[in-house]
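Task: sequence design from structure.
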């Protein structure tokens, strides 16, 4: 199996049908919030390898790093990952991606669904570096509530809107469009709406760092 073997340190529930995997950091693995890895495993214990991309959801990668996994009950990898207990081995390649946060500016992190992982990581990294942070998150069943609450307690602005509340999403973007470097993570329809909302609010979506999950 290609990639670097790493140990699964722990798996924990972080929301409805959502888990966070803490993985051993490989040697010379120098990743920044916003980047992603390719994870490979053989859930059936045979020669068939299943691989998926996951964006980092931890603000740092010193000894371990975290990915957030949405669990599809009918999926061929995520239910297996969710059922791990720690101590197992998976393989990773990366990091990949040019969207990065280097703890150098105030941030506005906008997330749809699974985009909350990198958004929370970027906001935490910003607060840790002494910068302001905004999180705007659209999801009917939010994940990482504890971390979002901790960010609020630390002075970050956190807005959560329902899936169908696009007017509320646009209003939140308008309210914060000038409050920092904008990052956006989510599926194509979501990030397209975010880009349009940035432009409608007087910002420049070409300057935003936007990652579509397809």
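Answer:
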């Amino acid at each position: 199996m290609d990639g670097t073997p790493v140990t699964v340190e722990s798996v924990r529930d972080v929301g409805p049908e959502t888990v966070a995997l803490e993985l051993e950091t490989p040697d010379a693995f120098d990743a920044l919030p916003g980047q992603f890895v390719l994870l490979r495993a053989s859930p059936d214990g045979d020669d068939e390898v299943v691989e998926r991309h996951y964006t980092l959801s931890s603000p740092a990668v010193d000894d371990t790093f975290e990915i957030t996994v949405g669990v599809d009950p009918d999926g061929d990898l995520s239910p297996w990952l969710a059922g791990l207990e720690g101590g197992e081995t998976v393989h990773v390649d990366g990091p990949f991606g040019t969207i990065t946060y280097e703890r150098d500016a105030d941030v506005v992190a906008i997330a749809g669904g699974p985009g909350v992982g990198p958004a929370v990581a970027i906001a935490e990294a910003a607060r840790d570096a002494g910068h302001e942070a905004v999180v705007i998150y659209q999801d009917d069943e939010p994940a990482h509530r504890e971390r979002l609450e901790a960010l609020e307690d630390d002075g970050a602005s956190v807005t959560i809107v329902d899936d169908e509340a696009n007017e509320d999403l646009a209003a939140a973007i308008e309210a914060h469009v000038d409050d920092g470097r904008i990052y956006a993570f989510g599926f194509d329809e979501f990030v397209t709406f975010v880009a349009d909302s940035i432009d409608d609010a007087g910002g420049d979506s070409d300057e935003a760092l936007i990652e579509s999950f397809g």
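DSSP finds five helices and eleven strands in the chain.
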